[in-house]
Structure prediction request, 105 residues.
Amino acid sequence: MTDFKTTDMAKADWNMLPKHLKKGIHNYIYYGVPVGDFLTAVLENNLNRTIFTADERSYEGLRNIVSFLYWYAPNSCHGSKEIVLKWRETYGLKGQGFTGLPDMI
Prediction:
C-alpha cells in the first residue's frame, strides 16, 4: 500500500536538491530507475556507505537530500535495502498505477 506522502509529490520542493542529483532522484521516485552508489546508500539508510561514496558536492547536499526524502518522498521508496529493491522492481510510482506523472528527465 502506498503511503500518504505519495500523493503529495506535486508539492515537492525539487530546488532543495543538488542539481547534479535531481534527475536520479526524480526518475527513481517516479519510475524506479536505479541510481548510483551514493544515492542508493542514502535511500537504503546506509550511513557508512553514504559518507564513503559521496563526492564533495553530494556530501554538501546530504542534509537537503535527506530532508527532501523525509518531507516529500513516499516512505515506501526509502529506508532499507529491501525497500529500495522492491521500489525498483515495481517501477516506482508508475508501477503502482499512478497516472499523470511527469516525464523522465
User: Anything to note?
Assistant: Helices lie at 19-31, 37-43, 47-53, 56-60, 62-71, 81-89, 92-95. The longest helix spans residues 19-31. Residues 20-95 form one domain. The chain has one domain: 20-95.
